[in-house]
Amino acid sequence: MSGINFGKRGWPSARMDGAEQEKYERIRQSSSGSIQQWAIEESAGKNSGPVTAEDRATTNRRTTGKSGSKFRRYLRGGLRTGLGIALVVGLYFSPALFERWVLPPVLPYLPGSNVPPRGFEAAAAPLGVPPAVSPSLEYRLQPSPDSFQPFVAYDPCRPVHYVVRPDNMPAGADRLVQEAVAEVSAATGLQFVYDGITTEGPSEQREKYQPDLYGKRWAPVLIAWSTPEESPGLAGNIVGLGGSAYAHAPGHPYIYVAGQVNLDAPALAPLMGQWEGPDHVKATIMHELGHVLGLDHTDDPGQLMYGEGNGVTELADGDRAGLALLGTGECVPQL
Ligand SMILES: [Zn+2]
Predict the structure, then answer these.
(1) How many angstroms separate the CA atoms of 114 and 302, rounded?
(2) Per-residue pLDDT of the chain (335 residues; tens, 9 = 90+)
(3) CA pair distance 204, 77, nearest whole angstrom
(4) How far is the CA of 301 from the centre of ligand 1 (A)?
(5) CA 200 to CA 219: how far, in whole Å?
(6) In the CATH hierarchy, which fold is given to the domain comprising 12-25+117-326?
(7) Ligand 1 centroid vs 114 CA: distance in angstroms?
(8) How far is the CA of 169 from the centre of ligand 1 (A)?
């Protein structure tokens, strides 16, 4: 959500945020303990519908290689047999042991799995570290699903991939997306990788694993330029929505694995031609990325993550302290 009051600078004075109506959807996904949560403020819109083969052809995809070779088929057959045995063996374990030790490594390879193979791109150590920041408590974290885990963050041992759905994007705004990502990346130490454009539209029910579109890995963060018609959550004064879904392996912390930023293109486009307007558009994107990375709204009107319009266009002390903390999440190669 955007925490910006454009009215103070002569723009529409409406509050550009839907802070207080954040909606948390929890879907118990599977016996792996994987849970989905889209911490999206308000409804994020309708499904984009099935992606056609033609769409997929134009979409930036990451696949794990050729799928038709005899060797791979042989490998798969062997793998399936092995997995079958593993499952049968697993039934002799206690349910707890089975769920914790036997099922997780096997699950990604079962047909129709809703989780990717574990540890995609996971390095042995964090890829970056957050910068030193001034101490500040003027930030708030998204609620954690586990009372023993103070916050949920992205895994710092692997890059945060992102894609852009460019439909409706105002001219010149592509640069603002890249700048906004670079700023939150620097503030967290998390490494972001741009995977290019996508045809995927925003959806409140977005799947966090979409192997047909993105290959066998968690879906990238989707930054979509949308409209209130496509995304009813952007109706009224709401110019942005943002949040992430988390996953969980038994015995390990929850981590965010996929997120989305949904921008109201018709509301933001007029600002592009105005004095300092692009700064506000970029601030909107950074604010939503703050939600994606795990920040909630703060009560301090001096922060970019303030829930009401405040005209702030830069990360302030509290924003930076919160983002630095969110760059210190745990590495969970078991996901
Ligand atoms: Zn917000």
Answers:
(1) 41
(2) 433 333 222 222 222 333 222 322 222 222 233 333 343 332 222 233 332 232 322 223 223 333 334 445 545 555 555 555 555 554 555 556 656 666 666 667 666 778 899 999 999 999 999 999 999 999 999 999 999 999 999 999 999 999 999 999 999 999 999 999 999 999 999 999 999 999 999 999 999 999 999 999 999 999 999 999 999 999 998 999 999 999 999 999 999 999 999 999 999 999 999 999 999 999 999 999 999 999 999 999 999 999 876 789 999 999 999 999 999 999 999 99
(3) 36
(4) 13
(5) 11
(6) Collagenase (Catalytic Domain) (3.40.390)
(7) 29
(8) 20
Q: Which residues pair with 154 in a beta bridge?
A: 256
Domain boundaries defined on the chain: 12-25+117-326, 37-109
60 Cα: distance to centroid of ligand 1 (angstroms):
29
- What's the 113 CA to ligand 1 centre distance in angstroms? 33
Compute the distance from residue 296 Cα to the ligand 1 centre, in Å.
7
Query: How far is ligand 1, taken at its centre, from the CA of residue 325, in Å?
Result: 19
* CA of residue 19 to ligand 1 center, whole Å: 5
Please give the model's pTM, rounded to 2 decimal places.
Answer: 0.73
Distance 122 CA to ligand 1 centre (A): 30
Instruction: Measure 268 CA to ligand 1 centroid, in angstroms.
Output: 15
Q: What is the DSSP string of 48-99?
A: --PPPHHHHHHS-----S-S--HHHHHHHHHHHHHHHHHHHHHTTS-HHHII
